[in-house]
């Protein structure tokens, strides 16, 4: 199995504040990693570093298995402003297509096909003409997952995909992600405060605090003192 991503000794900072120091982990093709840790520990910052939206201060991020940075799908952590985005579902999904060139502002046929496929895979055909801002939180996350899917066949970065969703809608979204992961062989890096969901679905867990507190398989995490404390039933 080839590694899809290898992060070595990663350090990131804002101006003078260092938020991540010496973080290392790797993931194989088609695996699901969950990143857990307290508010402000640097989880979102790290996803932005992987996506190429923020510079690294030190260390390295290498991709394998034919993945390039352009081929990563990213679902950002939600803010109130983004929830008011004034566009219809179809346009929001289509805006995730990062590859194809545009002619006179028109999307290529292949981009439109990708968006159509993503809408189908996430089961949101029935709302594809609705304004994004009129949807429920669960529907919006599904749309943003379809948007992220347009950009990738190999790696999805998901920043708190189920935060704010009720248990049933969360479970449905997890099942959709699991289907993309298992049948589509798309690796997943998910940041979450939902430890029960992380443990249920992930192959590996990265727990960050002031540094890496744990990195290993989900089984190893559950057997560790830290895992027992956070995921213990
Ligand atoms: N744009 C920014 N400029 C300066 N500092 C920032 C910026 N974004 C985040 N930080 C700081 O970096 C640290 C890590 O933030 P980050 O958003 O990565 O944490 P997080 O682990 O995702 O937290 P949460 O669980 O609350 O989403 C925090 O101390 C935060 O205040
Ligand atoms: Mg965050």
CATH fold-type name of the largest domain? Rossmann fold
CATH superfamily of the largest domain: P-loop containing nucleotide triphosphate hydrolases
Strand order of the largest sheet: 5-6-7-3-8-9
Low-confidence stretches: none
Tally of strands: 9
Q: With helices defined by DSSP (H or I, 4 residues minimum), what is the helix count? A: 9
Gross morphology is: globular
Helicity range of the residues? 25-40%
Spatial gap, N to C terminus: 33 Å
What structural class is derived from the secondary structure elements?
A: alpha/beta
Beta-strand portion reads 25-35%
H/E series: EEEHEEHHHHEHEHEEHH
Output mean pLDDT: 92
Q: How large, in whole angstroms, is the Cα Rg?
A: 18 Å
CATH architecture term of the largest domain: 3-Layer(aba) Sandwich
Description of the molecule:
The structure is a single chain. The protein has 233 residues and is α/β, with parallel strands linked by helices. The chain has two domains: 147 residues, P-loop containing nucleotide triphosphate hydrolases (Rossmann fold); 73 residues, no CATH class. It is built from nine helices and nine strands. It has a six-stranded mixed beta sheet with strand order 5-6-7-3-8-9, sandwiched between helices. Strands 2-1-4 form a three-stranded antiparallel beta sheet, with helices on one face. β8 and β9 form a beta hairpin. The longest helix has 17 residues. It is globular. The structure holds adenosine-5'-triphosphate (ATP) and magnesium ion. Adenosine-5'-triphosphate binds next to α1. The site of adenosine-5'-triphosphate has 10 residues, from α1.
